[in-house]
Amino acid sequence: MSVKIEHVALYAWDPEAVRDFFEKYLHGRSGSCYRNQKTGFRSYFVSFDDGARLEIMNRPGMTDPPHVPYGIGYSHVAFSLGSREEVDELTERLRIDGFSVLSGPRVTGDGYYESAVAVGEIMIELTV
């Protein structure tokens, strides 16, 4: 048996803004919006060059649980940009464009070179 992660899914208050971020800054390609007229659920699949896919979802009745820095569950998605220079350049571009840079760029204790950025309520890491 060959196993791979088919996609990762996350809920967002503004799925179009999150989709636009991944298209503009990380070269993702979005499919059209899927809408379930009965439930109000909607989602976009964003595909990346290596085959990875991200599903960005929204539905009526979503709640925003209290934010705790080290809570159980989803923490972040990391994107490899290929070099420290790319991490530096994109992090600065995001800062200039008004995104909140949460940390870095920096070398972590385990040797990663990364920055963390808030995209709405979602944290992403940019790494080599």
Describe this protein's structure:
The protein is α+β, with helices and mostly antiparallel strands and 128 residues long. The protein folds into two domains: 1-60, 2,3-Dihydroxybiphenyl 1,2-Dioxygenase, domain 1, CATH 3.10.180.10; 76-128, 2,3-Dihydroxybiphenyl 1,2-Dioxygenase, domain 1, CATH 3.10.180. Helix content is 20%, strand content 35%. It has helices spanning 15-26, 84-96, and strands at 8-11, 29-30, 34-35, 42-47, 53-58, 77-80, 100-107, 113-119, 122-127. The strands form two sheets. Strands 1, 2, 3, 4 and 5 form a five-stranded mixed sheet that branches. A hairpin with a 5-residue loop joins strand 7 and strand 8. The radius of gyration is 15 Å and the shape is globular. 20% of the residues are buried.
Question: What are the SSEs and their pairings?
Answer:
Blueprint: E1 8-11, H1 15-26, E2 29-30, E3 34-35, E4 42-47, E5 53-58, E6 77-80, H2 84-96, E7 100-107, E8 113-119, E9 122-127
Parallel strand pairs: 1-5, 6-9
Antiparallel strand pairs: 2-4, 3-4, 4-5, 7-8, 8-9
